[in-house]
What does this fold into?
Amino acid sequence: ETGVTQTPRHLVMGMTNKKSLKCEQHLGHNAMYWYKQSAKKPLELMFVYNFKEQTENNSVPSRFSPECPNSSHLFLHLHTLQPEDSALYLCASSQEPSGDDEQFFGPGTRLTVL
Amino acid sequence: QKEVEQNSGPLSVPEGAIASLNCTYSDRGSQSFFWYRQYSGKSPELIMFIYSNGDKEDGRFTAQLNKASQYVSLLIRDSQPSDSATYLCAVKGGDYGQNFVFGPGTRLSVLP
It folds into this structure.
């Protein structure tokens, strides 16, 4: 595996379900990110982890709970979501957040909340 | 309020023409500027970045930065149908801090 991978690629869940999104980067980067991309809206930064420590929580509702066990893995735990949470969730990584390094994106998880 | 603005498009150009994509940003202290391309159903991929005023060329792509006008553009020469995608402008630094702030993207359609 190379680059940034995400699983699952598609997820349909009810509002009472609990599910988790997984991201893994094989680039040796130190920073990982979760973004939300909704139709006709800019990419919204949700969380930033630098060396496994959360450095940014962009006013994300508590029904989204991130977890970063190590620099290569990032999870987004979902519970009691709302239909408006349906979107493409993108994971990204970079060497470190403070530099001018580009961010590499995973393929995303298309989430539908019924 | 931190803002990065782009025309949503769609911008339609004939094959072989020059496509010009524009982006404005609100924070004069911004330092780094990136252009990403996103094909439908795919994730964004970096095309170019620029830090200094002026032009930066890479193959058929030229990024232009004018910090005084808070304006960055991407020119695509000899446009191909395979260039049809959404182009995202991203800004970093200044009040934007260490994280990227993305514009809404411009959808480009190159007509054969």
